[in-house]
Known about the structure:
Blueprint: H1 3-10, E1 13-16, H2 24-33, E2 37-40, H3 51-69, E3 75-78, H4 105-118, E4 123-124, H5 149-165, E5 171-175, H6 196-201, H7 204-212, E6 217-220, H8 237-247, E7 253-255, H9 262-265, H10 273-280, E8 285-287, H11 297-312, H12 317-332, H13 344-358
Parallel strand pairs: 1-2, 1-8, 2-3, 3-4, 5-6, 6-7
Amino acid sequence: MPVSQLERFGHHLILGISGTTLNDDDKRALRELKPIGVIFFAKNFRLGTHYQVWLETFKDLIDQVRQYAERDLMFITLDHEGGSVIRTPLPITRFPHAFMLGTLGNEVAKATALELKSLGINVSWAPVADIFSNPHNPVIGPRAFGTTAQTAAQNACDYYLGLKESGIKGCAKHFPGHGDTSQDSHIELPRLNLTVEDLRSRELIPFQALIEKQIPMIMTAHILFPQIDAVPATLSKSILNDILRKELKFEGVIVSDDLDMKAVSDMFSKSGTVAKAFNAGCDLFIVSRNINSSSLERTYAIAQDFSDSLDNGSLDESVVAAAKARIEKLLEVTPQYIVHSLDEDTLLRHAKLAIACSCGETD
């Protein structure tokens, strides 16, 4: 495949990195694909070392990513919700689950944003806009901000505005709603027998509220809604185009949840799938290299599928151009931060805030 085609797919790719330093595969992928962004996990931070040591190592990693990708402007991203979704070592604050934040969500988000900026992060894959409606949900649960549409909407908006006011781009997830599932999309494809009317009455309400607050990104759910479409939401034009774009009037960037997740990983190994996702409404794709394997084979196979789809006409140039324009518009207003340490007083203040949330002192 010509390098130019590889780079074209890179403009729609958030790529995972293998460890605390770049290996040869990382360097090749960054050099050839030139991804528009990267996503970091716990494996990218040095454990068992003091703050200044792991922070300097992480700074070097980001610098190398930019060097090999030959990009000054990038989405430097982290899944950093709090609770069970925290990747960073101490002394970065371990805030509790979203469900426990109560009225302190805005304050927590501002503190979180300050810490993320100190790590060079400019995009947080938060807030969760799902609803804690199913107590047996194995993957969302207290990651959600509330048990009703109204409380989830209000508290997610408060959190998002805290990120926004403090210079971090947020992303609402997982559209059109993951809160009622009883299966984990990391290991299988969940099914929800909800109609569009069901979604309107509950699941869509937090997303609508966040769209009204101008959330810039929305992440898809790898969930099958058989009463709406025969394919998962990530591949569904009915869900992403008809509901999210047309009905809810979202004009920002639609990003897929991780394509390495078992719910869709086999689908994206088949030719034509990436074209279906673009045609459904996806602009940006996450390939974390964190779940199944750190191998780059799948990433390159998806990039090849992208190129083939353009060549055979199943993916129209106008669709890719529109997606690229939305991504570039967002990237232009996304700050680029320099890694730096935080002082002890700031970290102590944030630790006290986390304790207040954990103890229910939310008023």
